[in-house]
Amino acid sequence: MLLLLYNLASMNTMMDYPLTLAPVLERAGMLFPNGQIISRLPDRSFHRYTYREFRERARRLAESLTAAGLQCGERVATLMWNHYAHFEAYFGVPIAGGILHPLNLRLHPNEVSYIANHAQDRFLIVDDVLLPVLEKFKAQTNFERIFVVRHCSDRVPEGFEDYEEWISKATGDFQYPDLRETDGASMCFTSGTTGNPKGVVYSHRSIILHSLAGTMADSMGVSQRDTILVGSSMFHANAWGLPYTAALVGAKLVFPGPNLDAESLLNLMEDEHVTVAGAVPTIWLPITEMLASQKGRWKREHTLRIMCGGTAPPEALIRTLDEHKLHIIHAWGMTETSPAATMSVLRPHMDDWPEEQRYAMRARQGWPLPFVDLRIMTPHGEAPHDGQTPGELEVRGPWVAGSYFNAPETRDRWTKDGWFRTGDVASMEPDGCIKLVDRSKDLIKSGGEWISSVDLENALMSHPAVREAGVIAMPHPKWQERPLAVVVLRDGQQASAEELRTFLGQKFAKWQLPDDFAFVKELPHTSIGKLSKVELRKQFANWDWQTPQHR
Ligand code: ADP
């Protein structure tokens, strides 16, 4: 009777079938039993198995967790590189009703222990090679049991349990619990550039919908014919969803482990015939340098699609990679947006556009994926879609966080009418394409005008002598803030401050040009390889301006 009432009320005759990871795992094992999953391990050896074996082991993990008493919604942490066992946790934990919580192994020990405690992680699965990292924060945490994945050791130390032994005790007859699509499946924390790190809990449903979006021809277009290199960390926003998208369609998966240097990645991409890769621009920069110095090394008939985001890939990087059939698809997103929210895939009418214009479009953050709504808000209301008016980018959608985990004090990140305030400043074209101006906290506020540090950095990185550049705001008595450019030159290349200023002058108004240039050997990066403006500002807090107007 109740059911009948429900159907009448909702006026549809469709089944109420929950979108969960369980059918994704089962389908992957059944339809793609021979699909390959390849991992480069910490000792540089290879581990290879199939989706059939993967399904079997993910189920064993789920059964073992259930036997260990894991309750629905409880968190299981991982401290692992990108490889098969981590992938098993990506499914094994959520199908047991738990929430997978990959810990960022590059954070300060105090920060990791804060995150693990805040999430109330009950169990931990850790790589043996990362035990020294764990040792630095373990005393501050309360993991009930710790399971070690052995790569380079013969046995596990006292007080730990062996992952292989543990899951081998499972009967292999895992009974799926009743999972609801709104149940939590995994969680990630944003880096705490301001305040404490904040947790986002992805639901089964949000992961499934985000994965489906990744298979669309007008996004990454991932299919069963693809071989995907997961180059983004598995602790950063679900490795950008790529492992889940791959399992959904049965694509071959390639995990690089900790071997993220240009040589290792190029070898892996060559040997395994990778067709799709995801990684931040910092990973691609040394690859372009290697390709330039070893002419003829990378011969491709087909284009490799790169999902690239986390920070804006400079136009120069997009162009250089194109010369090697490495095609960047620029994506914008956040931990809070699962992460993919927009992609810059050119539209058919742009096919005939001049090359310059096409590259300029590809360097933008692009158009929202279906169901992702965007708006640009100014103090006076929504900004016109004129490609000019900047304002804070707000977002909503089925894979956008509606709150942070156990952090009621952060409620004001959401508007009363249900949009998430991103903290990014952007403008929107009439056709809905967005261009990110800056993070609001990185914008340079000079005499009532805004200067985009991102635009200056990208322009600087198109100078042939510049390897990397960071532009930060420095306090100024008259103008409030003025830009300082910190530049890393390419090996063996020269460029003076004057030359760079003249170069920028071709594109920017005089008042937008950096007042000074500092030349350094390297720039600081965050745990996931983004330029760390916080660290850069600290390093240059006492900068002695060279320009007369600062004297
Ligand atoms: P964190 O805050 O630790 O850097 P996130 O990965 O969640 O972690 O960061 C999201 C932010 O990264 C966005 O708000 C935006 O500022 C920046 N970002 C992501 N993708 C791009 C992109 N394609 N272009 C410019 N900035 C980007």
Task: Describe the protein.
- This protein is α/β, with parallel strands linked by helices.
- It is built from 16 helices and 26 strands.
- The strands form six sheets. Strands 2-1-11-10-12-13-14-15-16 form a nine-stranded mixed β-sheet, sandwiched between helices. Strands 4-3-5-6-7 form a five-stranded parallel β-sheet, sandwiched between helices.
- Helix 2 (21-31) packs antiparallel against helix 3 (51-67), helix 3 (51-67) crosses helix 4 (84-95) and helix 8 packs across helix 9.
- The protein starts with a helix and ends in a 12-residue tail after the last helix.
- Adenosine-5'-diphosphate (ADP) is lined by residues 190-191, 237, 309-312, 330-335, 365, 422, 424, 436, 439, 530.
Which value, in Å, is the CA radius of gyration? 24 Å
Question: Helical amount among residues, as a percent range?
Answer: 25-40%
CATH topology tier name of the domain at 21-279: Rossmann fold
Give the C-level CATH assignment of the domain at 21-279. Answer: Alpha Beta
Short note summarizing the structure:
This protein has 551 residues and is an alpha/beta fold. The chain is built from 16 helices and 26 strands.
Relevant terms:
551 residues, alpha/beta, GMP Synthetase, Chain A, domain 3, nine-stranded mixed sheet, five-stranded parallel sheet, globular, binds adenosine-5'-diphosphate
Secondary-structure map:
Layout: H1 2-10, H2 21-31, E1 36-40, E2 46-50, H3 51-67, E3 75-79, H4 84-95, E4 99-102, H5 109-118, E5 121-127, H6 131-135, E6 145-149, E7 161-162, H7 163-168, E8 184-190, E9 198-203, H8 204-214, E10 227-230, H9 242-249, E11 252-255, H10 262-271, E12 276-278, H11 281-293, E13 304-308, H12 315-322, E14 326-333, E15 340-343, H13 355-362, E16 367-368, E17 373-378, E18 381-382, E19 391-396, E20 420-428, E21 434-439, E22 444-446, E23 449-451, H14 453-460, E24 466-476, E25 480-489, H15 497-505, E26 516-519, H16 533-539
Parallel strand pairs: 1-11, 3-4, 3-5, 5-6, 6-7, 10-11, 10-12, 12-13, 13-14, 25-26
Antiparallel strand pairs: 1-2, 8-9, 14-15, 15-16, 17-18, 17-19, 19-20, 20-21, 22-23, 24-25
Helix pairs in contact: 2-3, 2-9, 3-4, 8-9, 10-11
